[in-house]
Structures are given as C-alpha cells and as structure tokens.
C-alpha cells in the first residue's frame, strides 16, 4: 500500500525530475514541493534562476494544492471575463495563476503539489508534469 502522504524521498524525486527536465532544455528554474496542507517540503533554486522564480514556484504549488487543480487549467477562469476573476484578489493568500503548478495525488487523494518557476509558463508546466509522472 502506498504512503498516504508525500515523503521527503518523494519530494526529492519530484525536485530532481523537474530539475533534470529543465536542465535538458537549458532552463534555470526554482522548484517547490508542498504537502497537502500547503507546507513546504522541499525547495531548490538553480544558481542562475531569477530570484523571483523562488516565490513564483512556491505560489504556483500553493495555488495547485488549494484548488486541487493544475494552475495551467485555471488561468482562463481568473481572467477579467472568467467566472473566478476576483479570486486572485479576494483572498489574502499567495495564489498565482500562471502555468507551472500541479497537484500530486496518491490513491485518488490530494497529497501535495509541485510548482516550477523560471521558464516560460508552458515550460514550467511541462517540467512539473514530468516530475509528477515519474512519481507515479
């Protein structure tokens, strides 16, 4: 039976896989892994990654875990004509609606999320998706 939460080993696998995917494309990133409560389990920022990418990776992961949805899937919902356009400013939480955050599930349960920042949003999403796929 699988562990019903993310372990430190899981977090390291997610970090390493996302980092390898980014390195393969020559992109410097920051990666954050949060547990289901939104608490930081692991973090890494490449030496040449933009400083702000540390904050964006964490906010993307936090948004993914809070909404239990990939941030790429909710971008349109918070646009001015979207059904949740006020969500970004209505809450006093560090939400960020840019692709790169993906929830992590185990046995159908939300156990955490990964966020990647530093590349183009589509790249960040693909790096995070590669990590989640590797975790299985």
Ends apart, CA distance between termini: 14 Å
Strand content: 15-25%
**What is the general shape?**
globular
Q: What number of domains?
A: 1
Helix content: 25-40%
In total, the number of strands is: 4
Radius of gyration: 14 Å
Mean pLDDT figure: 92
Low-confidence parts? none
Query: What spatial order of strands do you see in the largest sheet?
Result: 2-1-4-3
| Level-2 CATH architecture | 2-Layer Sandwich
Structural class: alpha+beta
Number of helices: 4
Helix and strand topology:
Elements: H1 8-24, E1 30-35, E2 40-45, H2 52-67, H3 87-90, E3 101-106, E4 109-117, H4 121-135
Antiparallel strand pairs: 1-2, 1-4, 3-4
Helix pairs in contact: 1-4
Note down, in words, how this protein is organized:
This protein is α+β, with helices and mostly antiparallel strands and 136 residues long. It has one domain (8-135): Beta-Lactamase (2-Layer Sandwich), CATH 3.30.450.150. Helices cover 38% and strands 20% of the residues. It contains 4 helices and 4 strands; from the N terminus they run αββααββα. The protein has helices at residues 8-24, 52-67, 87-90, 121-135; strands spanning 30-35, 40-45, 101-106, 109-117. It has a 4-stranded antiparallel β-sheet with strand order 2-1-4-3. A hairpin with a 2-residue loop joins strand 3 and strand 4 (109-117). Helix 1 packs across helix 4 (121-135). The protein is globular and about 40 Å long. The two termini are 14 Å apart. The mean pLDDT is 92.
